[in-house]
Amino acid sequence: MEIDVRKVAMLSRIRLTDDEAAELGPQLSSILGYVEQLGKVDTDGVPPTAHPHDAAMPLRANVVTNGNRREELQAPAPKTESGLYVVPKVIE
Q: Partners of 80 in the beta sheet?
């Protein structure tokens, strides 16, 4: 299993020592075994859910709270034109 751990580490761009790879091998095997066990559970007739609790998120009213303040925000700018900031050319 250590070879698999090294490959996963290489693909993930994670540097592992030999001791770390040896320690992670059994842990990775245990995790993969658990995932395989979950795949065997009969879920026929169980609707898919995004959250374990049957609750809806409260939504705020779709109301504009910060109106158009373009003129106010552009007032301190050195130069604007047609609602846009004018800056010096930096690429020739």
A: 85
DSSP letter for each residue of 28-76 = HHHHHHHHHHHHTS--TTPPP-SSSS--PPP------SS---HHHHHTT
Average pLDDT over residues 9-32: 90
Q: How many CB atoms lie within 10 A of CB 2?
A: 15
Domains and CATH numbers, the chain: 2-39 (1.10.20)
Q: Is 25 exposed, middle or buried (0-12, 13-18, 19+ CB in 10 A)?
A: middle
State pLDDT tens for residues 33-91: 899 999 999 989 988 887 777 777 788 888 988 889 999 999 999 999 999 999 998 88
Q: Global pTM?
A: 0.46
The pair of structure tokens assigned to 73 is 């925000």
Roughly what angle, to the nearest 10 degrees, separates helices 2-11 and 18-39? 90
